[in-house]
């Protein structure tokens, strides 16, 4: 993919002159994370443009919108797979309407050759026949193993984590669900990972990781961070797409908010740099980039970052 330098927000041209991200003792681990980062796409009007801006053979996380359907997510996944990308579709538990609907989703995953899904509870209100991700797991694992483990379609399941808490669900309940999902997936013989919702505090991310590792979280963690986005777009689009609660750290921390608002754009370095020495020891082996379909600027950041390191 060819990206014109003029498409990149002016403030981010400092990438050419500032201290390199991929330097020092943590460079190899960080480089691998940047190289293999997952790009999250959203099924909205800008999706076609976003797809056209992807690098060849990208790793894509295709979200599920309550304004559309799980089938719309799987349709987009089919298009991306046909274009040569590796795709993990999000499945929203609360959008599954009936047992027959769940079976049709499972069948479609098999038709597409998809071996990995990312599970979210979702925001659909009212929900279908499944209330949350744990109820979905119970039903889905039983369905996927119905003909024996040698015939299962899904080998790996990712799921969500919340370092910056949740606006509705108490922290104790989040903690319990995090570990229960891990137990259910691993006990089924599958592998798993968690991707974190956006959090803008390195200290909160680091503290959360240490607490959950000490409590028995063993699966790999993918750090969920925004790609390269104009600050105004990060705030407005994030609120509209339901990640507003993850922006609340900024309202609690005036210093961080003031520092962020003096920039034209957010860059992943903002979080990766202060966390660099903690990522490998705490089992963070992936990056999940929330692009809000602004793929071009995020891919230019990745291209420049990797070029600087070579």
Account of the 3D structure:
The structure is a single chain. It is built from twelve helices and ten strands. The strands form two sheets. The chain has an eight-stranded parallel barrel, surrounded by four helices. It has a two-stranded antiparallel ribbon with strand order 8-9. Strand 2, helix 3 and strand 3 form a beta-alpha-beta unit. The longest helix has 17 residues. The radius of gyration is 19 Å and the shape is globular. 39% of the residues are buried.
Short description:
The chain has 310 residues and is of the alpha/beta class. The protein is 43% helix and 16% strand.
- Poorly predicted residue ranges: 1-18, 238-247, 253-258
**N-to-C span:** 19 Å
Instruction: Round the Cα radius of gyration to an integer and report it.
Output: 19 Å
Shape summary: globular
Q: What does the largest sheet look like?
A: 8 strands, parallel, barrel
Strand numbers in spatial order across the main sheet? 1-2-3-4-5-6-7-10
Helix and strand pattern: HEHEHEHEHEHEHEEHHHEHEH
Please report the number of helical segments. Answer: 12
Q: Give the helix/strand class.
A: alpha/beta
Report the sheet-strand fraction: 15-25%
Give the overall pLDDT as a whole number: 85
Number of strands: 10
Portion of residues within helices: 40-55%
């Amino acid at each position: 993919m060819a990206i014109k330098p003029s498409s990149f927000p002016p403030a981010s041209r400092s990438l050419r002159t500032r201290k390199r991200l991929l330097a020092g003792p943590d460079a190899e681990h960080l480089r691998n994370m940047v190289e293999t980062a997952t790009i999250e796409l959203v099924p909205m009007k800008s999706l076609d443009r976003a797809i056209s801006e992807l690098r060849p053979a990208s790793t894509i996380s295709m979200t599920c919108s309550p304004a559309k359907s799980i089938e719309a997510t799987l349709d987009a996944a089919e298009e991306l797979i046909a274009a040569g990308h590796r795709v993990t579709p999000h499945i929203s538990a609360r959008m599954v309407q009936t047992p027959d609907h769940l079976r049709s989703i499972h069948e479609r995953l098999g038709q597409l050759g998809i071996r990995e899904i990312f599970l979210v509870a979702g925001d659909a209100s009212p929900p279908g026949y499944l209330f949350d991700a744990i109820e979905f797991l119970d039903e889905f694992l039983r369905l996927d193993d119905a003909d024996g483990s040698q015939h299962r379609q899904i080998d790996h399941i990712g799921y969500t984590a919340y370092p910056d808490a949740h606006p509705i669900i108490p922290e104790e309940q989040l903690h319990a669900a995090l570990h229960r999902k891990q137990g259910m997936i691993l006990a089924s013989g599958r592998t798993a990972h968690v991707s974190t919702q956006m959090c803008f505090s390195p200290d909160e991310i680091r503290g959360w990781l240490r607490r959950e590792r000490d409590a028995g979280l063993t699966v790999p963690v993918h750090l969920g961070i925004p790609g390269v986005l104009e600050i105004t777009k990060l705030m407005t689009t994030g609120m509209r797409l339901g990640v507003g609660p993850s922006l609340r750290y900024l309202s609690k921390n005036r210093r961080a908010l003031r520092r962020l608002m003096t920039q034209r754009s957010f860059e992943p370095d903002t979080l990766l740099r202060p966390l660099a020495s903690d990522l490998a020891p705490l089992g963070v082996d992936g990056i999940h980039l929330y692009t809000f379909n602004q793929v071009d600027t995020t891919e230019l950041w990745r291209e420049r970052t990797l070029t600087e390191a070579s």
